[in-house]
Amino acid sequence: MKTAFRIATVSFLVTAAAIKAAPAFSEPVQPQNVSVVRTADLDLTTVSGKRELQHRLVIAASEVCGTAADVDLAGRNDVRQCRADVLETAHANSERLASRSDGTILVAARRR
After folding, report:
1. What is the pTM of this model?
2. Second label for 94, Cα 20 to 30 Å away, from 13, 47, 61, 76?
């Protein structure tokens, strides 16, 4: 009877440890930051409307790419490149995206 109890206890502990450790072995999920840029209130046929959209896209790129410490040069370069990539994609798609019926542009960046 004691042997059966020990086997059951050890089996339980091994199973519990395996279940608890399973997330540690999975591939890490890359977080994606998203910012919503509202365009419904803008007249994109005017210079001022286009300027305001550009301003909003720059702010959104800053939000999704985050910041790095002044002493982290590699991090600052990553943030700078992220912002450039996000703005390039947003500009390439801004006219198409701004014509969405809900008047929003989703600006996203995948964190490295």
Report:
1. 0.61
2. 76
First to last CA, the chain: 55
Average pLDDT over every residue of 8-14: 62
Residue carrying the six token digits 């199973």? 15
Cα 12 from chain centre: 39
Q: What is the 3-state secondary structure (H, E, C) of the chain?
A: CHHHHHHHHHHHHHHHHHHHHHHHHCCCCCCEEEEEEECCCCCCCCHHHHHHHHHHHHHHHHHHHCCCCCCCHHHHHHHHHHHHHHHHHHHHHHHHHHCCCCCEEEEEEECC
pLDDT tens digits, residue range 29-69? Answer: 455 678 888 888 888 888 998 899 899 999 988 988 988 88
- What gap in Å lies between CA 64 and CA 98, rounded to an integer? 19
